[in-house]
Amino acid sequence: MQINLREAAELVSGKIFGSEEITITNLAKIEEAQPGDLTFLYHQSYEKFFKLTRASAILVKPDFKKTRTDITYIETADPNIAFAKLIIHYFNPEFPLNGIDKTSSIHPEAKLGSNVSIGKNVVISNGCRIGNNVKIFHNTVLLEDVEIGDDCLIFQNVSIREKCKIGNRVIIHAGAVIGSDGFGYYNDDKGIFHKIPQIGNVVLEDDVEIGANVTIDRAAIGSTVIKKRVKIDNLVQVAHNVVIDEDSAVASQSGVAGSTKIGKHCLLAGQVGIIGHVEIADNVILLAQSGVSKGIPKAGTYFGSPAKEVKTTLKLEAHIRSLPEYADKIKKLEEQIKLLQEELKKLK
Amino acid sequence: MQINLREAAELVSGKIFGSEEITITNLAKIEEAQPGDLTFLYHQSYEKFFKLTRASAILVKPDFKKTRTDITYIETADPNIAFAKLIIHYFNPEFPLNGIDKTSSIHPEAKLGSNVSIGKNVVISNGCRIGNNVKIFHNTVLLEDVEIGDDCLIFQNVSIREKCKIGNRVIIHAGAVIGSDGFGYYNDDKGIFHKIPQIGNVVLEDDVEIGANVTIDRAAIGSTVIKKRVKIDNLVQVAHNVVIDEDSAVASQSGVAGSTKIGKHCLLAGQVGIIGHVEIADNVILLAQSGVSKGIPKAGTYFGSPAKEVKTTLKLEAHIRSLPEYADKIKKLEEQIKLLQEELKKLK
Amino acid sequence: MQINLREAAELVSGKIFGSEEITITNLAKIEEAQPGDLTFLYHQSYEKFFKLTRASAILVKPDFKKTRTDITYIETADPNIAFAKLIIHYFNPEFPLNGIDKTSSIHPEAKLGSNVSIGKNVVISNGCRIGNNVKIFHNTVLLEDVEIGDDCLIFQNVSIREKCKIGNRVIIHAGAVIGSDGFGYYNDDKGIFHKIPQIGNVVLEDDVEIGANVTIDRAAIGSTVIKKRVKIDNLVQVAHNVVIDEDSAVASQSGVAGSTKIGKHCLLAGQVGIIGHVEIADNVILLAQSGVSKGIPKAGTYFGSPAKEVKTTLKLEAHIRSLPEYADKIKKLEEQIKLLQEELKKLK
Q1: First CA to last CA across chain B, in angstroms?
Q2: Cα C299 → chain centroid
Q3: Which of A26, A131, B112, B305 could form a disulfide with B291 if both were Cys (CB 3.0 to 4.6 A apart)?
Q4: Within an 8 Å CB–CB cutoff, is residue C250 touching chain A?
Q5: B221 touches chain A (CB under 8 A)
Q6: Residue B128, exposed/middle/buried by CB under 10 A (0-12, 13-18, 19+)?
Q7: Counting runs of H as helices and runs of E as strands, what totals does chain A give?
Q8: What is chain B's alpha carbon radius of gyration, rounded to the nearest angstrom?
Q9: pLDDT tens, residue by residue, C38-83
Q10: Is there a contact between B250 and B268 (Cβ–Cβ < 8 Å)?
Q11: With helix as H, strand as E and coil as C, how does B223-286 read?
């Protein structure tokens, strides 16, 4: 791959400082870059690598101190976004899956759009409807009446249960399970669980991305809904009847219990847990390992288990770290009081 | 689907108030119900929807205030259970999997009962024995000598390793792995791990349900045992040689470390972790994200990491929230003491 | 299986006490052992079973009190390791997978070494290179250009994405996903996520073991690297560009966020979470459910969320448990101060 430096700079609305007469053939991380590579600097913790990097060119912020003269700089407002745009432009991976593999099992009543690619051993059941330009990788299974829009990418070993609906440009990574039964039982008077059939479905709207080995349960009744542009990381659990609203993101190993509603533009960091039957407002950020046991009606950043506003949690954490000191102070106060009491006794 | 209101009321030992001459065709959640739907009200947080619901009939508790006259009520002791019973009666899903698919690979030495349905690309290895009325969905793999009882439902992409034993009426959801190797190593004097072969198996007793992408490791030696009627939610980890006793339930993303024994009628909420080699008594409830680092010999509800009786944890949490106040008080006490000391000095 | 007691004792550098004229046919846990079984005692909590065990022989430490005369003892420095060595010697499981199954799909441009076994419905794509003595179980998928060394064991329903590189003697358990896209997006000024193509790969070095349903994301650019002899338990998440150094172990349901580097000989217990872009030193132990929000530059044992040195966490936990007492003391101090103030007033 030959990358023209001026073209690259234009793509990211950047300004070149230094030699433009260099040949760029690859993109690389700053600590691994070699001559011929273009790299980027955005996270402070990586500045230590700047002195040593062997990259030929580097994306930097306009205020970056250009202390080296043997490297070409491209100044750009956000080097991270700029680098991403270059990856998208020059290196967007294509997946060599073409046509309908003869080992796949496609029910004669299923309907496929144009330019659909179906991998080996894929199962597409009765009543499925698949749009145009969809790629479904090997060993993935769609049960009855699954609907998939256009331009979707569904990786291998994915399970999509009956009646689930998937929008356009949705990506589902390997091993994800969409539409498994919700965890729904009722207890009889002997404390024995009886399964409640889960007769709803899962709806993934346009531009949703679902990570590897994620599980999204079908609704008990109605739909579990992942709205437009929501991004869900690996090993996340979404329980029955949950709704996650537009443009939210859920990082790995987080779990959302049944019937909870998460607002727009929310961010759940890793290993967050949210109880069932609550509502989380728009623009709520939950830091890693937070545990949410009641609704959050107000935008903001929350942390801890149980989750509180992050300022509160950090302040309380500082107090917790001071507990040995507080205990000492209490002890000292007790001694001082005792002394005072004794002295006062003497005075009386 | 036409639902006869009187029949429905009888099924749930209910009493009708209002018009019986209505036609019910579906069941729906209160906030989504349309004319012709029967809904239910059991969770206080949903009462706000009662005024607005378009449902034609509603299951309510006997003490519910029937403020609307345009809706038919069915009074029943537990509307949640009643609704579940109606779902089971009218909507229990049937899975259209019939016969042995010709793309499946069934070893000639495997034994299948009557009315067994095997999906596409299913692998059933040498020595497997499968009971009657079992459905095994597409792309599921059984290694050697797996035994499965009657009336089981095993969804797609499930892995069952060699020698595992599965009872009657067991349900296993997509992507679950039953019988993977336990995480067993010994360290040599250089701190290098050496794998200990895991030569036991997994036993799932009657009426167990296993969620999507669950992992249950085979015993190092002997059996990992999930006893009768235990229900396990998605993405749960059960380590080698664990025993979970009858009628317990484990919610999503919880993990139980090696050789731990969990009693009867226990409930683990989501993201709970239990250390290895301990015993949990019968009737123990562990609230979400609890971390258990030693055995729990007494029934009760526990919470926190490390887990304590829930009352204790909530009391301590309240104290933690008061820490800034305590710190202020200590500071004030110190100042007051100082003043007292000075005044006392003057008096002497 | 007939086990010769003298041979077994020699294998573990052990010394026999009691009758050598017994026939051993199996290995068993102490609480389940039957006549003819050899068992072992290493964990204090199992000593209660010693009085009752029906085992014919038992591995014990040299200082164990041999109070029973109806059982043969083998004294050995570490009964746990000794038992493991006997399992490896006498019971190492063999997996009856032989030859290339005719239902597998192997691309003509893929290269396979000698003595490779490929199960049913396995997909091996263009450009894959597989070493000698490798077993790949049913329904596993390798996308393009995957490289696998010698003597690997890859169980069923595993997904390995394009360009990933796997060393020698690597074991990958069922349902694991190697090389899924990292969770990488950039936000535009409307807060909408745009996917950054993840164009790196995953490298698993020699003697790595990967648990069931684990997810290891490919690097955004460069490689996510799991170094020699690292062992990863079920349902663990390893994000893009993480490096886990030699001889470390990660227990179930732990997660490591993007670009974090974990040192050599580290141990992560279950459900640990580590934030992205930090470094963890060699020989760091993180106890269960710990949450790490910054780098750990020093070897040691850490615990809690946020993680602190274990001594500190346990001390603070003890203080937290004392909070009701501290609150009482503060209240009492306040009363005493008030009394003192009043008495002092009187004196003036």
Answers
A1: 95
A2: 19
A3: B305
A4: no
A5: no
A6: buried
A7: 4, 37
A8: 28
A9: 999 877 778 889 999 999 999 999 988 888 989 999 999 999 899 9
A10: yes
A11: EEEECCCCEECCCCEECCCCEECCCCEECCCCEECCCCEECCCCEECCCCEECCCCEECCCEEE
Name the residue in chain A with its Cα closest to that of B80: A186
Cβ atoms of C222 and C240 within 8 Å: the answer is no
> How far, in Å, CA of A48 to CA of C145, rounded?
34
**What is the pTM (predicted TM-score) of this model?**
0.94
Beta carbons of B237 and C247 less than 8 Å apart: no
Query: Is residue A240 among the annotated active site residues?
Result: yes
Q: In chain A, which residues have their Cβ closer than 8 Å to the Cβ of B86?
A: none
Tell me if residue A196 falls in helix, strand or coil.
coil
Q: Which of B152, B184, B156, B155 is nearest to B169 (CA)?
A: B152
- Per DSSP, chain C holds a count of helices (H) and strands (E) of 4, 37
> What is the ipTM for the molecules in this complex?
0.93
Per-residue pLDDT for C346 more than 90?
no
Annotated catalytic residues of B are: 240
Is the preceding omega at residue C306 within 30 degrees of 0, hence cis?
yes
Residues of chain B neighbouring C210 (CB-CB closer than 8 A): none
- Higher local confidence (pLDDT), C111 or B44: C111
Q: Burial level of A84, CB count in 10 A (0-12/13-18/19+)? A: buried
Amino acid in position A34: Q
Cβ–Cβ pairs < 8 A, chains A and B: 189
Percent share of chain B, pLDDT over 70: 100
Report the interhelical angle of C310-321 vs C323-347 (nearest 10°): 60
With beta carbons less than 8 A apart as the criterion, state whether A179 and A218 touch. yes
Asked if B65 is an interface residue toward chain C (Cβ–Cβ < 8 A), one would say: no
- Asked if the bond preceding B306 is cis, omega within 30° of 0, the reply is yes
Judge: B87–A197 Cβ closer than 8 Å, yes or no. yes
3 state SS of C315: helix
Of C87, C138, C173, nearest to B181 by CB-CB distance is C173
Report pLDDT for A189.
85
CB-based contact (8 Å) between B293 and chain C? Answer: yes
Of B292, B286, B291, B294, the closest CA to residue B310 belongs to B286
Q: Which of A162, A186, A237 lies at the smallest CB-CB distance from B235?
A: A237
Catalytic residue (choose from A194, A240, A265, A319)? A240
B87 touches chain A (CB under 8 A): yes
Side chain identity, residue C224: T
Q: Which residues of B242-256 are buried (b: 16+ CB within 10 A; e: fewer)?
A: bbbbbbbbbbbbbbb
Rounded-to-integer distance, Cα C319 and Cα B314, Å: 16
Query: Which of C169, C164, C180, C252 has the alpha carbon at shortest distance from C215?
Result: C180
**Count H helices, E strands: chain B?**
4, 37
Contact of C173 with chain B, judged by CB distance below 8 Å, is answered with yes
Cα separation of B20 and B39, whole Å?
A: 15
Q: How far apart are CA B292 and CA B315, in angstroms?
A: 19
Distance CA B345, CA A344 (A): 11
Q: What is the DSSP letter of A121?
A: T
Sign of CA dihedral A277, A200, A125, B134: positive
Among candidate residues C289, C281, C277, C278, the one with its CA nearest the CA of residue C313: C289
Reading the block at residue B131, the tokens are: 């009971």
**Strand locations in C200-342, DSSP E?**
201-204, 209-210, 215-217, 223-226, 231-232, 237-238, 243-244, 249-250, 255-256, 261-262, 267-268, 273-274, 279-280, 284-286, 291-292, 300-303, 308-309
The larger pLDDT score, comparing residue B47 to residue B328, is at: B328
- pLDDT, tens digit (0-9, with 9 covering 90-100), for A181-220: 999 999 988 989 999 999 999 999 999 999 999 999 999 9
Q: Are C128 and C144 in contact (CB under 8 A)?
A: yes
